[in-house]
Write a structure and sequence with these properties.
The chain is an alpha+beta fold and about 150 residues long. The protein has a single domain, classed as Hypothetical protein yfbM fold (3-Layer(aba) Sandwich), CATH 3.40.1760. The protein has a four-stranded antiparallel β-sheet. It is globular and about 45 Å long.
């Protein structure tokens, strides 16, 4: 079965600023998720439709990691995502205000329709809020990677 793996890390902003090619920052793992099926890389459109523009931007735009020259361009894989510590309050507010019932009601916006409803609700309602909260509590940036099958 095809799957995508999402790994979440907290990064000290000072370590990130000092990172260069071959000198990555220390990554503090704060969580993981396995999303069954394909198409999770297309989730940003649904997130935007549901009124989560900050989360959609995080999910859609690849982070140009200064330490990973192989993760450059418009569609690197694994796909790196980054939210600076200063943006986490806004992401947390978006996620807290979101009613995951909309995912069930408006599942047609998901890349694979109603096949992904439970996983999307779990990701948006549980995992992303947990990861944002963990990075905020540590005063660090949030760094995510998506890997596996597109």
């Amino acid at each position: 079965m095809a799957e995508q793996y999402v790994s979440a890390f907290a990064i000290d902003p000072a370590d990130l600023a000092a990172a260069t090619a071959g000198n990555p920052p220390e990554l503090h793992e704060i969580g993981r998720a396995i999303l069954p099926g394909r198409g999770w890389h297309k989730l940003a459109k649904a997130l935007r439709h549901w009124g989560l523009p900050g989360v959609a931007a995080l999910w859609k735009h690849p982070y140009q990691a200064p330490w990973a020259e192989h993760l450059v361009g418009n569609d690197p894989w694994p796909f790196p995502m980054h939210a600076p510590a200063g943006a986490l309050d806004g992401l947390a507010a978006e996620l807290e205000a979101f009613d995951t019932g909309r995912i069930y009601e408006e599942y047609q916006h998901l890349p694979d329709g109603d096949d992904d409803v439970e996983e999307a609700a779990w990701l948006v309602g549980e995992k992303l809020p947990q990861w944002v909260a963990a990075a905020r509590e540590q005063g660090r940036d949030l760094y995510l990677t998506r890997d596996g099958f597109k």
